[in-house]
Amino acid sequence: MHAVLWPHSLSRQTRRLVLNSNLLTAPFRSFHSLSAMYTPKDQPSQNSKVLIFGSGNFGSCLASHLGDSQHDVYMWGRDKNIVDHFNNHHRNPMYLRDHQFPTNITAVGPELPDKNFMDKMDVLLFAIPTQFLRKNLLILQPQFNVQNMPLLIFVNKGIEIGTHALTLEIIADTCGPQIAKAATFISGPSFAKEIVERQPTSVSVASFTESEANKASALFHQPHFRCYTGRDPIGIELSGALKNVYAIAAGMSDGLGFQNNTRAMIITRGLAEMTCIGTAYGASPLTFLGLAGVGDLFLTCSSSNSRNYTVGYRLGQGESLDIIMETLGSVAEGVSTTKGVRTIIEELGVTAPIASSVYDVLYNDKDTRVAVRELMELPPSRELELPPTAGGPAQQLLRKLGLRAMDVA
Q: Which of 49, 243, 366, 400 is catalytic?
């Protein structure tokens, strides 16, 4: 047992909540969670074979980054025209169209790869929208060789409609707890265009299995792309999903003509809401102060390159959601995520007025100006306060995964 040295500014309640949430992210007594039949594949020191599921904006940029790092990359796409065009010209006709991709990237599809192909891979990376993940994992799961399992990496951000499940739970439901426990998640402030331009970028890499997080970090880490590992995949997932909701709010504010004061308010209060929701769910509140939390929140709330910000901006300009979604040209996960967030807020009993207002604008046809006015007319309240209880949903998910956390000081 080791003593914990707390900053004097932390209240007793805050310290207790941090300890409780750390129960979910502390090192485990042993990896009994990975049974004898599950064996992760050893990763080569260089030239890994990587299969990326998804040829969209982010999947393409990660393919370029890994190809640039001298790995052999295969990028699956469901559109035969994109696959053929990419292989003929080393360009993606839909995303990052001005970028010339490395020649060591091969597009595959539209059929999903078979078992023989996947057995040759060192890494399987999933960059497909959350709403389509369950369907594809159900198809792929019989092809997995759990006795020689590739490193699994997930970069999608969102909450599944209907089930309100995080990606971690989708993996557990479709592939079993062994695979879910070893899955690795990458999130952080990382626009695709800037990654392919080799602009300095940093991300969070998290897994319940620390060795797998270290493998993913080593795979991606470059002088222009720094990786920081952690053991709170639940917090990383919630951060990546929740920040999209607040990016829509920031876009609406800018679309209405409000300026810097208002945007700063939305970012700061959005972070407070994210931390409250995440802590009540069972994540560590400290995760929301990292790259996947405040880092990604700041990025998506302050740039027109963000799809979710763009949705909000156009709503603030008076366009209908149907027209925006028809003409956006890519998936804005925050629109579907807002539904799941609303349900989670109600189930947890936490107060998140900005997220609730975004839901009302998207799904109850509330006028954006009315939503802003009602937010500003709320009575005064305490600025920073964590929820009185924490951990219920995350503890249920841990039980589903068969995980047991050790006591901490």
A: 243
Residue span of the structural domain in which 91 resides? 49-231
| Alpha-carbon distance values, 198 to 60, 172, 193, 321 (Å) | 14, 35, 9, 34
Domain-terminating residue out of 231, 253, 285 = 231
pLDDT for position 10: 42
pLDDT at site 384: 83
Res. 20: pLDDT tops 60: no
Residue 12 lies in a domain: no
Whether 400 sits among the annotated catalytic residues: the reply is: no
Closest CA to 192 of 182, 181, 180, 203: 203
According to DSSP, the residues that pair with 126 across neighbouring strands are 53, 154
Mean pLDDT within 24-50: 64
For the annotated binding site, the residues are: 54-59, 132, 157, 192, 307-308
Q: Is 5's pLDDT higher than 50?
A: no
Quote the distance between the C-alpha of residue 282 and its chain's center.
16
Question: Which tokens belong to 80?
Answer: 């035969």
Our CA angle for 65, 71, 74, nearest 5°, is 85
| Domain shared by 156 and 280, yes or no | no
Return binding residues for substrate.
157, 307-308
The answer to whether the pTM exceeds 0.85 is: yes
Same domain, 216 and 67: yes
42 domain-assigned: no
CATH number, domain with residue 75: 3.40.50.720
Q: What is the CA radius of gyration of the chain?
A: 21
Arithmetic mean of pLDDT over the chain: 89
Q: What is the mean pLDDT of residues 189-200?
A: 96
Which residues line the annotated binding site for NAD(+)? 54-59, 132, 192, 307
Q: Mark whether 207 and 245 lie in a shared domain.
A: no
Mark whether 255 and 201 lie in a shared domain. Answer: no
